[in-house]
Specification:
Blueprint lengths: L3 E6 L5 H10 L5 E7 L15 E3 L2 H5 L6 E4 L6 H10 L3 E4 L7 H14 L3 E3 L7 H12 L5 E9 L17 H4 L2 H11 L5 E7 L10 E7 L5 E7 L9 E5 L2 E5 L3 E6 L28 E6 L14 H17 L7 H18 L42
Length: 391
């Protein structure tokens, strides 16, 4: 078995803490041979003493022994670095956000097809065991037709790093938003969603949003609510699902659901006559209940280092695609649909896209003439106070 030789662009929290550390546990299939980071002192890893410390992205892409490039640079550079790697004849694993616009993703897909190289989005949370169980239960039909799903990713705390600055493509929408949105669109179905979004800056020191709420609706699809909150002193459980036969609730480590079998109960035809004793309608329900507990370490939530098993699963799948030609489990086309919703959120709330988009000002649909420091509410249209000069 020949390990895939990996070059990593950006050796910070993600490139070092998630990717290199994961590869260190998958040495039979992957090895890190080159890295680039703007800080020279961060261009090393104790598990890969012979890796090449590159002085630029261009130098890393010139390394002939690099087969796969992991793009873990700041958000605004993802699409540009991924495109350069594909054009340089490398396979690409790109951190989220997988581009800021669908035009970004389309350019990457086209480059992947032209080069014959694999383009993989790092949406590893689609492998999370709680999501897989939720998807199984929803698709089983035991809860009936799913009418409403809420996912809550929250905590209470301030951040003051580059991921809170729009100049780096920061903000909760693109930092953590791709993960719950990926889950929700898997459960939403194939319909084109109507999108509502509200972005707020509440506690962070930068000028980007640290609170996000998204609603998705379409005929014959469940209404979806996504909450990412920096002011959740009492975080809610991640999952809350309603269906015509029952519902589900729970978090990353434990899920509970219950449902009724309407076929065992009498039909209830409309009766507009006054009820006996002026009572309200009511009937005794017989519930069937279920419970699931995670067998491994559960995810710690938004902002925390993600659980390792979903990352390992994605890497195993990527190895099979590159070395054995296996179909991709998470295709770039499926992630494009997620980016389309994120793009719509930016457009609805009046936020200009960062300079990292591949189309830039040449595509009028990807720019909005609103000051960068303004975070506009889709509900009220009122901008937050300017944060200029505070970062």
């Amino acid at each position: 078995m020949t390990p895939i030789r990996v070059g990593i662009i950006g050796f910070g929290r993600s490139g070092f803490g998630i990717h290199a550390n994961a590869i260190a546990s998958l040495r039979d299939r992957f090895t890190v041979t080159a890295v680039y980071d703007p800080l020279p002192e961060r261009r090393s890893h104790e598990d890969f003493p012979d890796l090449k410390a590159c002085d630029s992205v261009e130098e890393l892409l010139r390394q002939e022994d690099v087969e796969l490039v992991i793009v873990a640079s700041p958000n605004k550079f993802h699409a540009r670095h991924a495109l350069a790697a594909l054009r340089g004849g490398k396979h690409v694993l790109c951190e989220k956000p997988f581009g800021f616009t669908t035009a970004d993703v389309d350019a990457l897909i086209a480059a992947s097809k032209a080069s014959g190289k694999v383009l993989q989005a790092f949406q590893q949370r689609r492998y999370e065991s709680d999501f897989q169980k939720v998807k199984e239960i929803c698709e089983s039909g035991v809860l009936g037709r799913i009418t409403f799903i809420r996912t809550s990713w929250g905590g209470f705390g301030r951040r003051w790093d580059w991921q809170t600055a729009r100049s780096f493509g920061g903000g909760q929408l693109y930092n953590n938003g791709p993960h719950p949105l990926d889950h929700m669109l898997e459960l939403f179905g194939d319909a084109e969603p109507e999108v509502w979004c509200d972005l707020r800056r509440s506690l962070c020191s930068g000028d980007a949003e640290d609170e996000v709420q998204i609603l998705l609706k379409a005929p014959n699809s469940p209404t979806i609510q996504i909450d990412l909150l920096a002011t959740a002193a009492f975080p809610q459980e991640r999952w809350y699902i309603c269906g015509t036969r029952g519902g589900l609730t729970g978090g990353t480590d434990k899920l509970r659901w219950k449902f009724v079998d309407w076929s065992t109960m009498p039909a209830r035809e409309l009766d507009t006559n006054p009820t006996e004793g002026r009572s309200y309608n009511g009937e005794k329900l017989t519930w069937t209940e279920g419970e699931w507990t995670s067998a491994g370490a559960a995810d710690a939530g938004a902002g925390a280092t993600p659980a390792s098993m979903p990352t390992f699963s994605l890497y195993q799948s990527l190895w099979a695609t590159i070395r054995e030609g296996a179909p991709q489990v998470i295709t770039p086309e499926s992630v494009r649909r997620r980016v389309a919703v994120l793009q719509k959120c930016y457009e609805l709330t009046g936020i200009p896209f960062p300079e990292g988009t591949l189309t830039g000002d040449a595509d009028a649909t990807t720019t909005v003439p609103v000051p960068t420091s303004a975070i506009r509410s889709a509900a009220t249209g009122a901008p937050e106070p300017s944060l200029a000069g505070q970062i």
